[in-house]
Specification:
- By secondary structure, this protein is mainly β.
- It is flat.
Length: 292
């Protein structure tokens, strides 16, 4: 156990220092694309509570375009492949989870998400447009039966960075909770009443457009929000600072009910995965991200 804890500490240190270097990417970590280039920028964010509970190490390695089967997330080259921990984004940046990006070539990229035994738990393809900013979310997928092998999903969101109207802030929502159901996204008015911000409920995996608000309903410096599913009794409260010209993403994640999953915990001699049953406690919540 001590050996693994030491490796975990080393991992966390490495995560804070990693700068991606890969044949499909440019070396700089930036919030702006290079002038005259046709690069695409990627930010990675883990919203998986299952992965967080899989081994207690709370992270997943991402192999971009090439999977290295002989490594593990303990000894992977962190200057080549990013590592994401639940509730954190990579590359890391200052502020309220402000986005920073790795610059990649435009076009198609293979993404391999792995667990701590270096088993690929999600193999998917990402198509990115030239000169685009994109956030890649690693999320838990809904399941119909408990204690099944953990299932994950990637959701990519393009951030247009088109600017926010003067005197306003922008807010968008993304529903990554597998069991909260479709959510009504509401503004809490100064009198405590709710105003629906979207024309329809937001189902799992859906991303809303930006809604722009002025300071009419600011309370103690915040725009207060409530995400609800009345049928299930879901009510998630959060708030964002009112700062002119800022844009925020409200990530709804976690589970409304306790969950059981089977997760990879090692490898047999023949290379097959050893699965262990884990319980994931309910922790339905909203994470505020400052997109620009």
């Amino acid at each position: 156990m001590k050996k693994y804890l030491n490796k975990y500490r080393a991992l966390l240190c490495a995560c804070c220092l990693l700068v991606l270097v890969f044949t499909a990417c440019k070396k700089q970590v930036t919030a702006d694309l290079p002038g005259g280039q046709q690069d695409a920028a990627l930010n990675f964010f883990s919203a998986s509570d299952v992965m967080a509970n899989a081994t207690g190490y709370n992270y997943s390695a991402i192999y971009v375009d090439k999977f290295q089967s002989k490594t593990t997330p303990y000894d992977v080259n962190y200057s080549t492949f990013p590592v994401i921990a639940t509730g954190f984004d990579y590359p890391r940046s200052a502020g309220i989870l402000s986005y920073a990006y790795y610059n990649y070539n435009k076009g198609s990229h293979k993404l391999f998400f792995t667990d701590s035994s270096n088993t690929v738990v999600l193999d998917t393809t990402l198509q990115v447009k030239p000169r685009s900013f994109n956030c890649v979310y690693f999320a838990d997928a809904p399941v119909s039966l408990q204690n099944t092998i953990a299932s994950y999903k990637m959701i990519s969101v393009q951030e247009d960075r088109a600017g926010v109207p003067a005197g306003k802030i922008g807010i968008r929502f993304i529903n990554l909770s597998p069991d909260a159901g479709a959510l009504t996204c509401n503004l809490i008015n100064s009198d405590g009443s709710l105003s629906n911000m979207l024309p329809d409920q937001l189902a799992y995996g859906q991303v809303s457009p930006y809604v722009y608000l002025d300071n009419t309903n600011v309370a103690t410096g915040l725009i207060n929000l409530s995400m609800n599913n009345a049928e299930k009794g879901v009510a998630i409260l959060t708030g964002v600072p009112f700062s002119n010209g800022r844009a925020y993403v409200i990530v709804i994640t976690g589970f409304f009910n306790d969950q059981q999953r089977r997760v990879g915990s090692g490898k047999n001699a023949d290379g097959s995965t050893i699965y262990t049953s884990v319980t994931i406690n309910k922790q339905l919540r909203a994470i505020v991200r400052n997109s620009y």
